[in-house]
Specification:
Length: 421
Amino acid sequence: MILRLPYGHGSITADLRGLHCRELRPAAPRHAPAVAALVAAALDQPAAGRGLAELARGARRATVLVPDATRKASLPEVLPVVLDRLAAAGVAAEAVTVLVACGTHPPAGAAGLAALVGQLPAGVRVLQHDARDESTLVRVGALASGEPVRLHRAAVEADLLLAISTVQHHYFVGFGGGPKMVFPGVAGYAEIQANHGKVLDLASDPPRRHPRCEPGVVEGNPVAQEILAAARLCPPAFALLLVAGVEGAPAWAAGGSLETVFPQACEKVREWFEVEAGPFRRMVVAAGGFPTDHTLIQAHKALDAACRFASPDAEVLFVAACDGGAGSPAMEPFLADPRAAAIVARLAEDYVQYGHTTLRLVEKTGRFCVLARTELPRELAERLGMRPEGDVEAVLDHWRDEDPGEPVGLIAGPPVYPRHG
């Protein structure tokens, strides 16, 4: 088997011949239906309630929440269908705002934003959420902890709020997309940190990661449960949820109320992206190429998935360009001292979400031998416990020489996760 593993904007060839490989593939279809037809059916024949065109009649201001570039949602193909339904309902283009739900991610530049949303009708306004811009935030209520919830004014003040998102596993919220488009998607920075800080169980001594903050887990997950509650403070009138096929294009879509369609989307993700396999003493995982391997923050998610199939003494070959570096200046203090105990202590005093990402990473490099083919500076990769490897073929040759009969787990496409009981 010779594969071209996605790497940045290109690929790396991996000659796996002579190795006993088990590729962990999702059950999702490889060839997705036409996106426009799939979306149109979800908008016109929702899982519950009225179709979008009927629902939008009489709306004076409509806001459409969309994910940023770190979440693939085929927006250049999806948005025209949505905007067509709004126009048919009498909502003028000048009354429509497309709001990119960046959460705490940095905004895209002009070229990146244009590529993200595609060609839009003249008059449609495009905004990118900035969680730190207090002037754009409006209070809509409070979390159970008493922490106020503030959301972007364009979402709160719209007569009609729509949300488009792709649902997939998330390494500590259970599932991405759905309610996350509202919170943390267009929320204030302080409340995002307060919510994500619940990934730590501070009641234990010493503090630990909460055991229910795992992919595919919503019940009993304090972060996920609070996100659901926060989204109910400003629920979209219509949610269009997508689940991607193997090639990344939407292969499943449903529309309607978030409460109705989000559980359906989660079940589809479980059906398509959970498998039974392993454990493996050797794993190969590619982080998917740009944009999912552009930064360590994003690429780590693929490593997280692969390590769930690895035995305690495994070698994991991690192929991720990370040519955008770590991904956030907020990560720097944790990268400077990436000892797990030091990170936990720092997070217990002042939670920073990308500190938690660093913690998850060094937990893996502490348990497994992570061989990294990456553009990260060598010194940084080594400090994080990885072993930089410039030549993928040299690693595979070593495995062939050492024990060619040893099973090798391979994730070369979308990440998959162990099947829940």
